Amino acid sequence: MVLSMEGIPGLLYLLLLSATGQVSSYGAPWRPTWPAYRLPVVLPQSTLNLAKPDFEAEAKLEVSSSCGPQCHKGTPLPTYEEVKQYLSYETLYANGSRTETQVGIYVLSGNGGGAQHQDAEPSGKSRRKRQIYGYDSRFSIFGKDFLLNYPFSTSVKLSTGCTGTLVAEKHVLTAAHCIHDGKTYVKGTQKLRVGFLKPKFKDGGRGTNESNPAMPEKMKFQWIRVKRTHVPKGWIKGNANDIGMDYDYALLELKKPHKRKFMKIGVSPPAKQLPGGRIHFSGYDNDRPGNLVYRFCDVKDETYDLLYQQCDAQPGASGSGVYVRMWKRQQQKWERKIIGIFSGHQWVDMNGTPQDFNVAVRITPLKYAQICYWIKGNYLDCREG
Description:
By secondary structure, the protein is mainly β. The protein contains 6 helices and 20 strands. The strands form 3 sheets. Strands 5, 8, 15, 16, 17, 18, 19 and 20 form an 8-stranded mixed sheet that branches. Strands 9-10-11-14-13-12 form a 6-stranded antiparallel barrel. Strands 2-3 form a two-stranded antiparallel sheet.
């Protein structure tokens, strides 16, 4: 049974806002364990047909903002109606048609869940030379034995220039700005494709380099067309109304299954619960064309919606799935999950001292409920984050 949050008194709503983020952890302290979250439900209420977009926006491979952690933390909590608006979404189909879906937010009566959210407020300042901090700590991944194996095989390239991550048999998670600039869709989105690295066989061979086995095997992209995309209205409204990067995520549905192992999404634990306080992600940085680039780094700060870190990255890595590996108590095994989406760069005034960060959008309980419903189409399959 689900209960609507509409009409909940203000004080009780604030209690629910503070409740969803609470977790219960299991296992020994030395074994980082996936927390058990109380999850809300996000369900469609109505769908409206929209005019076809013009697809005239220029693709931007990164997003910049000068609103840092303190700016984000100081933003007032949104109302229930505002949260519903932010989580409403646009769907773009391959034939160019477009719809807008309004959602309702519900709590499961037997699960004690609630909705929680916090907004941010960016501006458009940018800095041209950025995203590498001191010594470049990125690793280019070579050889099919690595590229074609999990977890690196879950990273894919978008035809608009960004990175995405396989999160289901036919679904790819990426950054919203890779397909939409906040006002309209970018050029090429109507014929959006997703590229999978595969061995580049020559002369009918098996792809091995017999003359020099130490040389990495050449790879090529095999492309699959996208059937439809989902973008939250919080991103579309956000760019127009300076709300922030909180909703810089999108889900792509492919026209056919990709037949690779994918990585599940999960609710982002607090940074202090991450193994070593670190995150990991792989992407197609545009300064290393054709290479998949892996990196990991410490989380420096966090808000409810964003993770601030200084992982070395360049444009093209945007949309990469940020993941960690933790112990899954129920299955008694280690499991990687995507807990965020790499978004872009922030140049922040920290107590009068300029400081720059790379930013990832966290998968919060509400975002998990929304993305999971986009994938599954049934909220009952989205009870575990």
